[in-house]
Specification:
By secondary structure, this protein is an alpha/beta fold. It contains 14 helices and 19 strands. The model has no long low-confidence stretch (mean pLDDT 93).
Length: 443
């Protein structure tokens, strides 16, 4: 093989891995024109070497030996696309120890073990590319790391999970219950057989962990981020949101809070959110992703595109490969640190407790259709310093003679809202737990 070729070794030939192989082959000529030298897939490792993936691997060594791939001198960059945090972690560290740059789309690996991965890469002097780990084909990480490097990032608001966004969009459009929409999402390939990581917000939390590190130099894990998924939302919530002038989206939110002495506290959370219908994020539908970033110099920006899928994600993986190949030929590691901040400056940042968040909220009470019930509810809210801005009662009495009572509050702190809801849920005339959805208006 010609000495001027930069060889790529691919571990994992699933959906995304197949996409990477296709893009490298299909666009080989244009990539070479941009780099000035060939970037070629030279070796693939996968446990399944029999299934036809619809990609021509003629001239590419294909076997199940991932360790051999890492040790192969023809492989200059290792791509990890097997997922999970077990074997993926071991192989990623092995590649770094061998002095080979790593490209991965594995947000769970980096969210839970990023300190170990990036620390090893810094000590060994190799690059880690992970653009595909957040928002698929949207170049959001590169944009924060390079395009917005002159800014202090004031806030991030992201629709980071296409599965949840598809489910919310369809529930609003059709009025169907969540269970029926999830089944359809699975049939269309938008949702896994077990969609828990998407519906419960874990996937979005992993991605927000990486965004927060990139934007604020914050050492976090996904487990530290307060996370709430979309389960429990009913069609009536979407009807109410529309009447109140909002749409419901699962958002990952990060904001910087700087005190008078210059100390930073980070607000980071994932949960369903009511956002004004006129905002750009409110109009991101289906399985699409979008991230709104506000910088102190640039102001508000919006990044939009496909957040998943074979080709969009492969596009991001190959973009990392091109950047790293260019750096290899230029001598040494890449021009900027993987997480934008130099590794030695990354540090834990105190998180703002959810109880201190202050804003309006949507509350769905389920109460018996009797005189005086709304007065009892509003009385408890008032005792906790929470005013009612708008209220709607939907439909006729149903189960146990109950009706949904839908409320938009004035601004209040989360601790007071939670305490009031606990009190209200204990009332005799309230027949189901209150549903609280926060409102985000900085969009």
């Amino acid at each position: 093989m010609a000495a001027d070729i930069v060889g790529v070794g691919l571990i994992g030939l699933g959906t995304i891995g197949t996409g990477v192989a296709k893009v490298l082959q299909r666009n080989a000529a244009v990539i070479e024109q941009r780099l000035g030298f060939p970037l070629r897939l030279v070796r693939v490792a996968d446990l399944d070497t029999e299934t036809d993936r619809g990609v021509d691997l003629a001239g590419v060594r294909f076997d199940s030996d991932a360790e051999g791939l890492i040790a192969d001198p023809a492989v200059h960059i290792v791509v990890e696309l097997i997922g999970g945090t077990g074997a993926a972690r071991q192989l990623s560290l092995r590649a770094i120890e061998a002095g080979k740059p790593l490209v991965t789309a594995n947000k769970a690996l980096l969210a839970d073990h990023g300190g170990e991965i990036f620390g090893a890469a810094a000590r060994r002097g190799v690059d880690v590319g992970f653009e595909a780990s957040v928002a698929g084909g949207i170049p959001i990480l590169r944009s924060i790391r390079e395009g917005l490097v002159a800014n202090r990032i004031e806030s991030l608001h992201g629709i980071l999970n296409g599965t949840s966004n598809y489910v919310l969009t369809e529930m609003e459009k059709t009025g169907e219950p969540q269970e029926a929409v999830v089944v359809r999402a699975q049939e269309l390939g938008y949702a896994e057989a077990d969609p828990s990581l998407d519906l419960d917000g874990g996937d979005a939390a992993h991605k927000l962990t990486l965004l927060a590190a990139m934007a604020y130099g914050a050492e976090l894990t996904g487990k530290e981020i307060p996370t709430e998924g979309i389960r429990g939302l009913d069609p009536v919530d979407f009807e109410a949101a529309r009447e109140f002038g909002f749409r419901i989206k699962l958002l990952g939110i990060a904001k910087a809070h700087v005190d008078a002495s210059g100390g930073l506290r980070l607000e980071a959370r994932v949960h369903p959110t009511l956002i004004p219908t006129q905002s750009l994020l409110a109009n991101v539908d289906g399985a699409m992703n979008a991230v709104a970033v506000t910088g102190d110099a640039v102001g508000p920006t919006l990044f939009y595109g496909a957040g998943a899928g074979e080709q969009p994600t492969a596009s991001a993986v190959v973009a990392d490969l091109v950047e790293i190949a260019r750096a290899l030929r230029g001598g040494g590691a890449g021009r900027v640190a993987p997480l934008s901040y130099r590794p030695e400056t990354l540090a834990p940042v105190p998180l703002l407790p959810l109880s201190e968040i202050h804003g309006r909220a949507y509350l769905r009470f389920t109460a018996r259709d009797r005189a005086g019930v709304l007065a009892h509810i509003s009385g408890v809210l008032g005792e906790h310093g929470i005013g009612i801005e708008s209220v709607i009662q939907k439909g006729r009495a149903g189960h146990e003679g109950s009706v949904p009572v839908l409320v938009i509050t004035h601004r209040a702190d989360e601790a007071s809202l939670r305490a009031a809801c606990e009190r209200i849920d204990a009332l005799d005339d309230v027949t189901a737990p209150t549903r609280l959805v926060r409102i985000e208006e900085e969009l």
